[in-house]
Structure formats: structure tokens, C-alpha cells
Design brief:
- The protein is mainly alpha-helical.
- The chain has a domain at 23-70.
- Helix content is 45%, strand content 0%.
- It is built from 3 helices and no strands.
- Helix 1 (23-36) crosses helix 2.
- The relative contact order is 0.16.
- InterPro entries: TrbM.
């Protein structure tokens, strides 16, 4: 049996290579998901501990620092 292969001249769109998050960026993304959930599974413990561990004497400093932490999660 002889098989004839034809060249496909159409280009397929390139698929971006996934980029895995690490460190605080990863924890920030996890914290966002965990804070938005009604139930927090055990997997939320590390990220929520990091989030709630941000604590200053001045509540506005705490709120700003926590927001800055969550903003480390990429939007795209």
C-alpha cells in the first residue's frame, strides 16, 4: 500500500506556551479564588494564611498591603 502525503500550506495558529505561576503571584491568584468561594478547601490554607498574615497597626496600611498582594495575580 502506498500512501501519499500532501503538504498542508495553511498555517495553524500558534498556541502560547503556558506559564506557571510561583511564589506570591501564585498565592495571590489562589487567594482571590479562595476569598471568592463560599467554601475554602484545604488547598486554600497557604494562600489565605499569606493574605491574612499581612497585618499592620493602621488598618488602612493593612488594606493597602493586602490589595497590593492580590494585585500580583496577572489579569491575563
Amino acid at each position: 500500500m502506498l500512501v501519499h502525503a500532501q503538504s498542508n500550506t495553511q498555517r495553524t495558529p500558534s498556541v502560547p506556551t503556558p506559564q506557571w505561576l510561583t511564589g506570591d503571584r501564585k498565592l495571590a491568584c489562589e487567594a482571590i479564588l479562595c476569598l471568592a468561594s463560599n467554601r475554602q478547601p484545604d488547598e486554600c490554607q497557604e494562600s489565605l494564611n499569606r493574605y491574612f498574615g499581612i497585618d499592620f497597626d493602621d488598618m488602612s496600611d493593612t488594606a493597602t498591603a493586602r490589595a497590593n498582594f492580590l494585585n500580583q495575580c496577572p489579569r491575563q
